[in-house]
Amino acid sequence: MVRKNVAIKSVPRSGDPGRADNVRQIIFERAIELFDAKGFRGTSMNDIAEACGVSKPAIYHYFRSKSHLLEMLYDSITADFFLSMEKLAHSTEGARARLRRLVRLQTLHNIENQRFLTIFWRERHEFDELSRKALAAREREFEAWVTRIIEEGKASGEFRDVDARTAMFGVLGLLSTVHRWAAYAGRNAEDVATDVADLLLVGIIKENAPNVRFEGEETCNFQNCSRGNGS
Which PANTHER family does the annotation name (predicted)? Predict the structure, then answer.
């Protein structure tokens, strides 16, 4: 996100190929502030334009509607995250290591974007039909990646013989609440991510599965997880 108080008028009009992206980021920041304070329904496109110091047609130049703005804000915040998740799901790394890394990365991502996610989960019912379909497609895709990792972990003997979709929904259900309670844990984001990953992995790792030491992370089996140094 851009710094607060940066005005659209301060973004150079010529010679900057990234101007459109910079303007969108300013609009996103102002929109988040308004959605947080007034709610999605209580915020108008005119409110957003006034907060940005531009006319309403200038906002419509970038977004076809308020719902489209929220959808594009979601895409802006999650694009790199989903790309890394897709690569992780299809990598040749062991399923246990992949699932642990996925949990840690999503926990950190959700903590970092706490303000947006609070708004998103509160307001997502306000998406228009086109935006809802796009969001649903992205969510089903992500669910398939997590299910794939769990299925492969079962096949390799790393995970217990659980129902993969039930396990997937359990994992994602816990992760979807991290942004709500992480600030009250009294720990930094990295430690919270490690604890959440340990909790979930202990629940799915097959009993008597061999220990696996991850570079810079922990040695885990069904009974315990202890901090290691990668040696």
Answer: HTH-TYPE TRANSCRIPTIONAL REGULATOR BETI, HTH-TYPE TRANSCRIPTIONAL REGULATOR RUTR
